[in-house]
Amino acid sequence: MKGLYDDEGNRIDVLYRQTYPLEHLIEDVSEESGDPIGEQLLQLVCSNKLIMLNPISAFLLQSKAVQAAIWGMKELDSPYFTETEKQWISQYFLPTYLEEDIFIENGMKYVKKPSFGREGDTVSVFQGTEKLFEDKHKTYEKSLPVYQKYVDLPSQQIKTVNGILEGKVLIGSFLINGKASGIGLRAGKQITDNNAYFLPLGIKKGRE
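The structure assignment produced for this chain is given below.
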């Protein structure tokens, strides 16, 4: 019977896919036989022989082009969003487009990043047509780029195994079923890459 099994022959019913990219999974092949094991895994999910968390459908929201679509609908005053939702978008979203024209015309700083990418890979920062700095990795050069308004991250001194360092702090927020479920802090360069530090985070409770 087809399915996913561990090294001891136990069948796996639910597979937790934490952060492994689906676009990489599609290209995965066995080093021994050359079989497309990534595609085979996805076929098990599609045929209901395996449940995957996070699901394949998460791929749809993974693209940063979704941000450009949402911002564009907000600018066009689309009836898809309520007035309250448009205010949220204006407050919490960075202006994001599929072309850089508006930033160049206004001489603004902006970020070019791949729609499918992570860890700062293939990210560049521009001032008009001048490239200011970039990440050295170019894994996602073939990915559709998006162009986003540049915002300087706040600086913070952090304690590391190498002593006190100055880092740029990035705040990540997470939703589950539309409800706030957690936040995370990372500190690194202005382009947050895979060498950034994960920072501890706690909530100080007041006196009762």
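Interim note for the steering committee: The helical segments are 22-25, 37-46, 58-62, 65-75, 83-92, 101-105. The CA atoms of residues 12 and 140 lie 32 Å apart.
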